[in-house]
Amino acid sequence: MNTDFIKGIVVPILTPIDENELVDEKKLRDQVDYVIEGGVEGILAFGSNGEFYMVDDDEMERALEIIISQSNGRVPVYFGIGAIKTRKCIRLAKMAEEKGADGISVLQPMFLKPTEDELYTHFESIAKSVPELPMLLYNNPGRTGYTMSGALVEKLARNVENIVGMKDSSGDMTQTSEFIRRTSDLDFKVFGGKDTLLFASLCHGAVGGVCTTANFMPELITSIYDNYVAGDVEGALKQQYVLNPIRLSMDKASFPVATKDMANMRGREVGVPYLPNKATPEGAAFDGMYNNMKQAGLV
Predict the structure, then answer these.
(1) Is residue 284 part of a domain?
(2) DSSP secondary-structure letter at 108?
(3) Does the residue 179 lie in any domain?
(4) What is the DSSP string of 23-70?
(5) Three-state DSSP string of 135-196
(6) What is the pLDDT of residues 66-103, one digit of tens each?
(7) Which of 174, 156, 176, 150 has the alpha carbon at shortest distance from 106?
(8) Angle at 272 between CA 54 and CA 259, to 5 degrees
(9) Cα angle vertex 123, ends 132, 108, to 5°?
């Protein structure tokens, strides 16, 4: 299975919606062009910042069609799956394959506390339902309440042919590096999942990052990766330090509102989040995000 395309900055693209909370096709197509022109090397539809947990299956399908159509082969398109039930994940995986996605990314089930055996069966079943489609694991303990272990990831990587990589959003560099170390003899691609740790992840052997800030400042986040792979380590670190205050200021807003807030600050006009979330009101959190963007020369 060819996995050479799995690398670089992948953006978990935000989902613009209209007043009826339906995907805004025009704005989504514009966002696809914006991030590609900004230098990303992949688009993840319905990652965490794509608000997958808010969207009906038919709308997911329509949005994926739009993204694949608009990207038109310029970058690979991955489809994010965050359902709890294994059978639903399989249904979504097959839909993504039918629509022409280049890969899928599967989050560990939230709300539950599965055993390692249950998790293994869950991921294996999804992967084997689409054996020709590359599958990435998505470890996000901050949102699911538990982490995947290094042993589980290694076992899946060694035994399931089309589980070819993962995104680690743990924010724990020891854990990220363990995922990389334990699979270093395999063609297994690990992405960093914390924008503030992109440089550190690359230093440990990650192939790139899945970075939400690429939704509104792709030129900055891609410069970290591009400088690093070109051998300009000092330049990459310098850009990481420009990025970090901006990304950290987002934590003062409710999740995942800040991504759309900051995109709108840069004139992207991507609209509002799904209810019950609301755009961040003017005040300390809003001012902090704006001032950090201004200091970086982005607004």
Answers:
(1) no
(2) P
(3) yes
(4) B-HHHHHHHHHHHHHTT-SEEEETSGGGTGGG--HHHHHHHHHHHHHH
(5) EEEEECHHHHCCCCCHHHHHHHHHHCCCEEEEEECCCCHHHHHHHHHHCCCCCCEEEECCHH
(6) 999 999 999 999 999 999 999 999 999 999 999 999 99
(7) 156
(8) 85
(9) 130
124 neighbors 131 (Cβ within 8 angstroms)? no
pLDDT tens string 149-205:
999 999 999 999 999 999 999 999 999 999 999 999 999 999 999 999 999 999 999
165: CATH? 3.20.20.70
Q: How many domains does the chain have?
A: 1
DSSP β-ladder status, 135-139 and 103-107: parallel
Show the tokens assigned to 61: 């399908």
Strands (E), 101-144: 103-107, 135-139
Q: Yes or no: say if 166 and 138 are a contact pair by the CB < 8 Å rule.
A: yes
Specify which residues 12 forms β-bridges with: 44
Nearest to 260 by CA among 4, 9, 24, 6: 24
Q: Is 167 a catalytic residue?
A: yes
Q: Is residue 223 part of a domain?
A: yes
pLDDT beyond 90 at 15:
yes
Residue with tokens 């999942």: 193
- Structural domain contains residue 41: yes
Q: Which of 34, 78, 138, 290 is catalytic?
A: 138
Residue given tokens 């297994």 in the structure block: 188
Q: DSSP character for 131?
A: T
pLDDT band at 134 (very low <50, low <70, confident <90, very high): very high
Give counts: helices (H), strands (E), the chain: 12, 8
138 included as an active-site residue: yes
**Enclosing domain of residue 223:** 8-232
* Of 99, 167, 189, 194, catalytic: 167
Token pair belonging to 228: 């690093």
